[in-house]
């Protein structure tokens, strides 16, 4: 059986078109597919699965798949840390063009690599590509640096919560739109056809590979845009330009924004340009002495713990995941916001003849149990607490349902209604805990004479809104 890993998201449209020309018969490969695993209608020996793009190099490296398509950025992210990974780059597919840039704020003193290298104080580098970021820092021989892995929204971090970000963009002009300046192009990337090296040696992949090679279109590089640095409308100053007693509040991006806006409105707290149609990460907040930045909820606990924010609105699931990794973290929950309710559950495939965790342990026997999840620390704690014996945590970055049953034995996943789980022919065998959105804080900020009054004001206003 030829196993193929295909990407969601940015590469899906072009990859789908290429594979249709190549007559792979993967009719199930569509945008917003409800089923992630399917077989070829023209080749009974080919099956495919849809993954988050970042997961694909890992899945090929460990031998779960023979062929895959992903951007060279995610391939380099893996090989930067594991250079001997069992992956072969077969062909540049000619689409998915972009670059990874090392960027700083336009007003940053670090306006060049030379300025960065000369710095003797700590340089904070934030990125979704932490392995590439570390390699970048090592190559520059930075004297003192810290890497902050992110789930996204890296552009929000300079200059106050990171000096440098490494992030993907089509051009430097795209950086300028976010008031960022490129100090280096770290990597040019496009989509690649990749293979597991052992599969190349042991399986006949020639038909599939040659059909793709014959149908690759010539890619035309996008025309470079003029770079114009213009302030984002409604964007507030950075935290660095504010008094030391300013309370720094992180609000979530993405689908949680309408819920947060509704609560703020009910509390009588004005906020401008949130949610933002222009991608503004610094909306104006209606309480003096409180400044806001919009980032990913997954990143909030570690950012609050490191003192980059005083308050944040995130999910109790992400707070718990953080506290399992860092039990002495200074982050604490201040208020349950009573929205965004989900359950964290243990999930297996319907074809697995078990109904609870003990039966799954017996079913797996002495072999390694593979647990796939975005919640790696919760999963590890759950496995240890339940004495699962020989197990391995498989980190994922979304589309976790795709991993069962071939690539994992169990998932730790969140669900609201269970509908998505059922649609993928999966079942729940245990509930870990329930989670809602909550306000978290750095304990030092809560007890700070300079900030406690403003923090208490926000919490009191939110409490009244919840009680109304």
From TrEMBL:
Pfam family membership, one: HisG
SUPFAM superfamilies: Periplasmic binding protein-like II
GO molecular function, one term: ATP binding
EC number: 2.4.2.17
Main location: cytoplasm
Pathway(s) this gene product operates in, as recorded in its UniProt entry: Amino-acid biosynthesis; L-histidine biosynthesis; L-histidine from 5-phospho-alpha-D-ribose 1-diphosphate: step 1/9
Annotated GO biological process: L-histidine biosynthetic process
Record InterPro entries: ATP_PRibTrfase_cat, ATP_PRibTrfase_HisG
Enzyme kind, highest EC tier: transferase
Catalytic reaction list: 1-(5-phospho-beta-D-ribosyl)-ATP + diphosphate = 5-phospho-alpha-D-ribose 1-diphosphate + ATP
General function of this protein: Catalyzes the condensation of ATP and 5-phosphoribose 1-diphosphate to form N'-(5'-phosphoribosyl)-ATP (PR-ATP). Has a crucial role in the pathway because the rate of histidine biosynthesis seems to be controlled primarily by regulation of HisG enzymatic activity.
Family matches, as PANTHER family: ATP PHOSPHORIBOSYLTRANSFERASE, ATP PHOSPHORIBOSYLTRANSFERASE ATP-PRTASE
The protein's name in its UniProt record: ATP phosphoribosyltransferase
């Amino acid at each position: 059986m030829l196993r193929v890993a295909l990407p969601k998201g940015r590469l899906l449209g072009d990859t789908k078109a290429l594979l249709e020309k190549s007559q792979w018969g993967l009719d199930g490969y569509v945008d917003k597919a409800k089923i992630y695993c399917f077989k070829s209608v023209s080749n009974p020996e080919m099956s495919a699965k849809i993954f988050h793009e970042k997961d694909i190099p890992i899945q090929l490296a460990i031998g779960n798949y023979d062929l895959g398509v992903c951007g060279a950025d995610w391939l380099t992210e893996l090989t930067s840390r594991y250079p001997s990974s069992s992956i072969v780059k077969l062909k540049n597919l000619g689409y998915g063009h972009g670059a990874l840039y090392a960027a700083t704020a336009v007003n940053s003193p670090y306006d060049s690599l030379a300025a960065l290298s000369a710095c003797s104080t700590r340089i904070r580098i934030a990125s979704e590509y932490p392995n590439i970021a570390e390699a970048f820092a090592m190559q520059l021989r930075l004297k003192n640096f810290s890497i902050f892995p992110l789930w996204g929204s890296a552009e929000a971090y300079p200059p106050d919560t990171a000096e440098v970000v490494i992030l993907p963009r089509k051009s430097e002009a795209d950086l300028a739109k976010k008031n960022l300046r490129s100090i280096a192009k770290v990597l040019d990337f496009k989509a690649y056809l990749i293979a597991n090296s052992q599969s190349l040696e042991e399986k006949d992949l020639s038909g599939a590979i040659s059909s793709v090679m014959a149908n690759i279109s010539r890619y035309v590089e996008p025309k470079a845009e003029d770079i114009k640095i213009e302030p984002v409308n409604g964007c507030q100053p950075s935290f660095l330009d504010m008094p030391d007693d300013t309370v720094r509040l992180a609000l979530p991006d993405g689908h949680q924004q309408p819920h947060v806006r509704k609560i703020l409105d009910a509390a009588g707290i004005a906020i401008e340009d949130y949610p933002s149609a222009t991608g503004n990460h610094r909306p104006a907040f209606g309480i003096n002495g409180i400044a806001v930045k919009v980032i990913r909820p997954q990143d909030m606990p570690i950012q609050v713990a490191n003192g980059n924010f005083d308050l944040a609105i995130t999910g109790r699931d992400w707070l718990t995941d953080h506290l399992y990794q860092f039990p002495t973290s200074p982050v604490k929950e201040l208020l349950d916001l009573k929205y965004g309710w989900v359950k964290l559950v243990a999930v297996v495939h319907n074809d697995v003849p078990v109904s609870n965790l003990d039966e799954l342990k017996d079913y797996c026997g002495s072999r390694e149990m593979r647990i796939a999840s975005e919640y790696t620390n919760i999963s590890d704690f759950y496995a240890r607490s339940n004495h699962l014996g020989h197990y391995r945590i498989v980190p994922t970055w979304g589309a976790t349902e795709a991993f069962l049953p071939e690539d994992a034995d169990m998932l730790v996943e969140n669900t609201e209604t269970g509908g998505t789980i059922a649609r993928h022919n999966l079942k729940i065998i245990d509930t870990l805990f329930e989670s809602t959105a909550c306000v978290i804080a750095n304990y030092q900020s809560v007890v700070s004479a300079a900030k406690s009054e403003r923090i208490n004001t926000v919490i009191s206003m939110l409490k009244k809104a919840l009680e109304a």
